[in-house]
Structures are given as C-alpha cells and as structure tokens.
Specification:
The chain has a nine-stranded mixed sheet, with helices on both faces. By secondary structure, the chain is of the alpha/beta class. The model is unreliable at 39-48 (pLDDT under 50). The protein has six helices and nine strands. It is globular, with a radius of gyration of 17 Å. β3, α2 (60-70) and β4 (71-81) form a beta-alpha-beta unit.
Length: 226
C-alpha cells in the first residue's frame, strides 16, 4: 500500500518484496529482524502477538544474500540484534558485507528478565555494515547512542522514531531510498517521512501491518495540521 507519495508498505513475506526490485536499488537498510529467540514480553498487561519467524534463524542466510543483491554498491546497513545471537548474525553478514562496528543503543530503563541472578539489560546492539566505502554524514560520533525506550505501545520491539531518524540522516541524503524488511509498527517509515527520504518496507503480521498503516496515516495528518 502506498501511504504517501514516498512511503510504501506491504503485508507480505519480505523475500517476495525484494524479488520485485532490481540489483543495486536501495541506499540504506534499516531493519529490526526477529532475533530467533521466540520473544514474548511479559511486561505489558495486554500482550501483542508473537513475532512471526522468531523461533529460529534458518531464514537468515538466504535473506542476507538477497539483501546483498538489492543494495547499492555504497550502501550502509543497520541491523538490530541481541547479544544472544549476535555471532550468528555477524557470521552470515560478513560473508557479504563489511561489518564496520556494533553500535550500542542505550535505553533509559532496563528490561525485566532475571531480577536477582543477572545484570539488568539496558541496551540493544545494532550491527553497522558497509557495502563499499561510503562516508558517514556529520562527522564521527560515538558508537553508543542514547534514546528513550518507547513503551512498546504498537509493537513488542518498537523502536524510537528519533533513533531511526538519527541513523537515517547519518547514512543517506534527501530522497534516498530506505528499506525495512521487518517494518513492525512503522517507526522507520515515520522517520523517513520526517527526514524526507523514500521508504519501502513490509510487515508479515497482519495485525502489526494494520497498526502501522493507521499510525503513519495519523502522523501524516497531524503533520499537515501544523
């Protein structure tokens, strides 16, 4: 569905989406894939549906191979990841891309987990990759990025819009094309709208897809009012 002139999201498997695009098409991949952990948050009273494809990472090798085909030769990639499976992600990604760094998103609060037998988790990893020698915009920043957690109103792993805006602006120019293969509640899409980038993405779960369309539509409408 084309939500605005520059924002398009479909409800389908991302391999079907990518198959429609030619080689060397996208300027940036910014995505938060399933971590292969069968994640279910127990913090919220009203729980979201489980994330499809999160029971294992068998799909990842073929997925990253297709990502390589459709990314431009100077593209950057940001792939969210957990320490639980980071070695699996890195092993496959390094077959195709130059892993430049692992960024740390420092959240303003901690997760739940083992309250007495473990340290409180306060971060997520973002694997930063390059498909060439493209430079970052705005100079060299720290690889620790602070952004407040969202509260996960729309999605169990919802990302802050300002965090996505920051990454988009570090790696793209006006009207560049951003891909999100696991668009969730459309935080990346809204960040693209706010920064005047083109967005193409998909979400397999119909509930999250419907929420994302409504969320973008409301955001665009409110933006026009002001």
């Amino acid at each position: 569905m084309k939500v605005t002139e520059n924002i398009e999201i479909t409800n389908e498997d991302n391999m079907l989406l990518m198959d429609r695009y030619p080689d060397n098409y996208f300027d940036l991949l910014l995505t938060d894939p399933p971590f292969g952990m069968d994640f279910q948050s127990n913090h919220r009273k009203v729980k979201h549906e489980k994330i499809k494809g999160d029971t294992n990472l068998d799909w990842f090798p073929s997925w990253i191979t297709e990502i390589k085909r459709i990314m431009k030769t100077d593209a950057h990639l940001y792939i969210f990841c957990s320490f639980h499976k980071v070695e699996v992600f890195k092993t496959e990604i390094q077959k195709h891309f130059n892993v430049k760094n692992i960024l740390i998103w420092e959240k303003n609060n901690t997760g739940m987990g083992d309250l007495e037998g473990d340290y409180a988790p306060k971060y997520e990893m973002i694997i930063f990759c390059s498909n060439g020698v493209k430079k970052l915009k705005g100079g060299r920043d720290s690889n620790i990025i602070k952004a407040k957690k969202t509260g996960n109103e729309f999605h169990p792993t919802q990302k802050p819009i300002n965090l996505m805006e920051y990454l988009i602006e570090k790696s793209t120019n006006n009207l560049d094309i951003v891909l999100d293969c696991f668009s969730g509640s459309a935080s990346t899409a809204i960040a693209c709208f706010n920064t005047n980038r083109k967005f193409i993405g998909c979400e397999l779960n119909k509930e999250f897809y419907d929420v994302s369309i409504k969320r973008i539509t409301n955001h665009v409408g409110q933006t026009k009012l002001f």
